[in-house]
């Protein structure tokens, strides 16, 4: 009887069922025939960071191959091993041990580990940071709530719901460069401009909206209640004077005339140019 008897679309399980055990560091070896070099600046920096801030809660088991001669080689986890050795106060690590036929099979497993490894997306990290109470993620969430918006958990714009955004990198960038007040006002202006609409072009347009808000804050010289002024309140109607797709087209045409320029920069230039043409008044 196989595990796939009632699910014929699944291939039979292969490989050796591994065991979990603690291994002394002096038991673990590295086969340089297939392992990456850790002598690069990037690897050395990573190793020092892991060693300096060792956290057992983040130490996943190393995947270790046991050869027929009983020697054990680390297939996945070389940086963790090097960090533990660097510290000097850690003498064993948790390991998943699997019997292998030797270097060729281990090299194949090494390739598979790295092909299947998917780094977390910016959205994944945002939601994890939010759950952990990280301050910037909390600020972004507050700004979204103030604007009546929410963060999508995926990047498929075709299935966005009205009021959802996914441009987390742009929101983080705005928060970092201009602060929470500009972030919040810009999100509120975008939400008011296209209420009930799918904000599928937010990633391209938001940097431009934030640039208008930054400009107006500078014009007002950050006076108290600057965000409640008539000029700032006029941003949403100004945006609503065109469809999102029309603004997007203006930005992309401008980008086509300036190849190599960051889209966020072009967005800021285009929207601010149109804004100041309609609302002149002070330089920032």
Task: Enumerate the strands of the largest sheet in spatial order, edge to edge or round the barrel.
Answer: 1-5-3-4-2
Number of strands: 7
Percent of residues in β-strands: 5-15%
How far apart lie the N and C ends? 75 Å
Instruction: Give the biggest sheet.
Output: 5 strands, mixed
User: Can you tell me the overall shape?
Assistant: elongated
Q: Which structural category fits the helices and strands?
A: alpha/beta
Low-confidence regions: none
> What proportion of the residues is helical, as a percent range?
40-55%
Notes on the protein architecture:
This protein is α/β, with parallel strands linked by helices and 284 residues long. It is built from 12 helices and 7 strands. The protein has helices at residues 41-52, 78-87, 103-116, 122-132, 135-147, 168-178, 180-193, 202-219, 230-233, 235-240, 244-257, 263-278, and strands at 19-24, 28-29, 62-66, 72-76, 92-99, 150-151, 164-165. The strands form 2 sheets. The chain has a 5-stranded mixed beta sheet with strand order 1-5-3-4-2. It has a two-stranded parallel ribbon with strand order 6-7. It is elongated, with a radius of gyration of 26 Å. The model has no long low-confidence stretch (mean pLDDT 91).
């Amino acid at each position: 009887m196989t595990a796939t008897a009632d699910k014929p679309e699944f291939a039979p399980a292969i490989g050796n069922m591994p065991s979990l055990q603690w291994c002394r560091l002096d038991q673990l070896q590295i086969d340089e025939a297939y392992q990456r070099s850790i002598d690069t600046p990037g690897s050395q920096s990573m190793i020092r960071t892991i060693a300096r801030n060792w956290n057992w809660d983040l130490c996943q088991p190393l995947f270790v191959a046991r050869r027929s001669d009983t020697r054990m080689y680390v297939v996945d986890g070389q940086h963790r091993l090097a960090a533990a050795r660097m510290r000097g106060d850690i003498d064993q690590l948790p390991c998943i041990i699997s019997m292998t036929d030797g270097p060729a099979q281990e090299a194949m497993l090494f390739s598979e580990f790295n092909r299947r490894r998917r780094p977390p997306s910016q959205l994944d990290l945002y939601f994890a940071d939010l759950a952990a109470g990280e301050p910037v993620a909390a600020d972004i969430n507050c700004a979204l709530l103030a604007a009546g918006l929410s963060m999508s958990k995926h990047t498929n714009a075709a299935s966005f719901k009205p009021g959802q955004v996914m441009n987390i990198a742009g929101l983080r960038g705005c928060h970092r460069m201009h602060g929470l007040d500009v972030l919040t006002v810009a999100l509120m202006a975008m939400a008011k401009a296209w209420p009930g609409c799918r904000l599928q072009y937010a990633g391209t347009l938001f940097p431009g909206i934030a640039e208008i808000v930054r400009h107006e804050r500078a014009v007002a010289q950050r006076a108290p209640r600057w965000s409640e002024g008539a000029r700032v309140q006029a941003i949403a109607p100004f945006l609503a004077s065109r469809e999102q797709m029309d603004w997007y087209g203006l930005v992309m045409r401008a980008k086509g005339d300036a190849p190599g320029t960051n889209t966020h920069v072009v967005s800021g230039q285009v929207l601010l140019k149109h804004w100041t043409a309609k609302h002149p008044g002070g330089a920032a």
